[in-house]
Amino acid sequence: MRSRPAIAATLALGGCSGAQTPLAPVADQAGSQYHLLLLMLWVCGVMYLLVIGFLIIGLWRARGRHAAAPPPLLEPADDRLRRLLAVWAAVVVIGLLVLAGGSFLVERSLALAQANESLRIRVTAHQYWWRIAYRDPASGRWVETANELHLPVARTARIELGSADVIHSFWVPNISGKMDVIPGRANAIDLTPRRLGWFRGQCAEFCGPQHAHMGFDVKVETSAAFDAWLAAQARPAAAPRDAEQARGMEVVTREQCAMCHTVRGTAAIGRNGPDLTHIGSRHSIAAGTLTMTRAHLQGWIAQPQAIKPGTMMPTVTLSPADANAAAAYLESLK
Amino acid sequence: MIAERKRHRTTIPFDGRARAASVAAILLVTVAACTKESRTIGPEQPQTPPNGPADPRTRYFEGNAYQVSQGGRYFTWYGCGSCHGDNAAGTLDLAVDLRQRPLRFDQLYSAIARGHVHIGIDYGSKIPTEQLWQISAYVASLPRLKPERRHREDLDEAGEPRGVTWSGPVR
C-alpha cells in the first residue's frame, strides 16, 4: 500500500506527456510559453525558498524567548539590518523585472507579424463543434471540413477565429496558448508547428452542456502530405460503389440530413452542421467524441442525444436499414 | 461614527430581519425563474407530431423558454427569415397574421410541416420532429413578442447560419 502515492504521482506525471499538454511543446508559440513558464517557476521557486528559509532561521533564533517582554517598536538603528533590507528589496525588484521582461518579450514575439503567413485558415466555433475552412490554391475557393485541423510543418498558419453563437476558446496546448473566440469579433492566432504528429485541441471556455465534447484533432504533416490532403479535400464526394451505399446517399442527400449537412457534388447543401464531403477520412466524429468507425457512425446517427446529450444533432427517425445504409455511405466518403 | 450607526440600528429594530427576508425573497424568485428553462437532456423527445388540440406536450413546449428559443434558432438556421423576416408583409408577417387569424398549436405545426408544399418544400419530412415542435412553439410566441425583443433576439443570432447561402459568422 505504500506504493499508492508513487502510483498516483506517476499517473499524474503521465498526464504531462501526450497529445494534449502544454508541457510537451511542438511549436514555436507553445515553446516560448513553456520557457516563460520555466522562468516563472525558477524565479518564484527561488524567492519562495528564500522566504521560507529566512522564516525558519528567524523562528530558530527566537526559540525560548517567547516569555520575555515584547521588544519596543523603534526604528532599527542597526546599520547591518538596514543594508540587508536594501539588498532584499533589490532582489525582489530584480525578480519582478525579470518576470515582467520575459513576459513582455514572449507576448511581443507571439503578436509579431510572421514572415510566412501565406496559409490562412478560417475556424468557426459552433456550439460543440469546429468548422474549418482552407483556401484551395488551385481554384481559390474555400474548402470546408470540420473538427480536424491539418498544418504543414515549419510553416506559419494564421488561424482566423469566428464564433457563430457564444464565446468559445481555441486551444491546442502542444502548439499554442488559448485564444478566445468572441461572437462579432475577428481574433487570430499564429501557429508554427515544428514536429510531425497528431495532437488534440479543445474548447477552453465553457459554452454549454457539451463543452467538454468540443474537441478537435490536429495533424502536423509534411508540406507535400498537406498539399495532397488539401487537394483531396477540395474534390467533390466519391460516388457510391454498391447498392447499399447508393441507398445511403439517397438517405443522406435527399432526406433530413441534407437540411444541415453538405456533401459537395450532391443535392445536400445544408450549412448548419459539419460538412460531410470527406467525413470518412477524418480521425474522429462528433467533435472528438468518438473515433471514426462504422459502428460509431451508426450509433451517432441512431442516438446522438444518448451519446452527446444536448448536441444540436437531432434524432432523426430512420428505419434501421436506412440508418445502416447512411453509415455505410458516410464511411465510404474518404 | 460607530455610535451613530448603533443608534440608527436601535431605532429600526427589524432592520436585520427585514433585510434577510428580502434577500430570501429575491433568491426564491430567482431560483423559481429557472423552471422556465427546465428540460431533460438525453434521448427522450417527441417522436410524433401533436395528436390534437389537447396534446399534453403542447403546454410544455409553449411555456418553456429554452424550447421557444431553440425554435427561434432553427427558424434562423433553416432560412425561414428569408420570407418571414423583418421585411415580411401580409400573411408572411407571422406575428401580425397570427394575431388576426389565431391558430391552435397543432394547426400551426401542420401549417409549418405541410403548408409549404406549394413552394416545393416538404418541411414535415425534412425537419426532425423535435425541431418542428420547437419551431412551432417559437412561431406561436411571435404574436406575444414585442418588436424590440424580437429585434434583440435577431441580434443575438447574428452570427448563426442562415439558409444555404450563409457564408460565415459576423467578424
Produce the secondary structure layout.
The complex is a heterodimer of chains A (about 325) and B (about 170).
Chain A lengths: L3 H11 L13 H35 L16 H33 L7 E8 L2 E7 L6 E5 L1 E5 L4 E7 L4 E4 L7 E3 L5 E5 L5 E7 L11 E7 L1 H12 L8 H12 L29 E2 L4 E2 L2 H9 L1 H4 L12 H13 L2
Parallel strand pairs in A: 1-5, 4-10
Antiparallel strand pairs in A: 1-2, 2-3, 5-8, 6-7, 6-9, 9-10, 11-12
Chain B lengths: L1 H10 L3 H19 L22 H8 L1 H13 L3 H4 L9 H7 L4 H10 L8 H4 L2 H13 L5 H10 L15
Helix pairs in contact in B: 3-9, 4-9, 7-9
| Alpha carbon gyration radius of chain B | 23 Å
CATH topology tier name of the largest domain in chain B:
Cytochrome Bc1 Complex, Chain D, domain 2
- Classified in CATH, the superfamily of the domain at 119-230 in chain A is Cupredoxins -  blue copper proteins
CATH structural architecture of the largest domain in chain B:
Orthogonal Bundle
Distance between the termini of chain A: 50 Å
User: What is the tally of helical segments of chain B?
Assistant: 10
Strand content of chain A: 15-25%
Q: How many domains make up the 3D coordinates of chain B? A: 2
**Major beta sheet of chain B, specifics?**
none
Mean pLDDT over all positions of chain A: 90
Spatial separation of the terminal alpha carbons of chain B: 54 Å
The H-and-E topology of chain B, N to C, reads as HHHHHHHHHH
- CA radius of gyration of chain A is 28 Å
The helix content of chain B is: 55-70%
Account of the 3D structure:
The complex is a heterodimer of chains A (334) and B (171). By secondary structure, chain A is α+β, with helices and mostly antiparallel strands. Helix content of chain A is 39%, strand content 19%. Chain A has 8 helices and 12 strands. In chain A, the strands form 3 sheets. A 5-stranded mixed β-sheet of chain A has the order 3-2-1-5-8, covered by helices on one side. Chain A has a 5-stranded mixed β-sheet with strand order 4-10-9-6-7. The mean pLDDT of chain A is 90. Chain B is mainly α and 171 residues long. Chain B has 2 domains: 33 residues; 101 residues, Cytochrome Bc1 Complex, Chain D, domain 2. Chain B is globular and about 70 Å long. The N terminus of chain B is likely disordered. At the A-B interface, strand 5 of A face helix 9 of B.
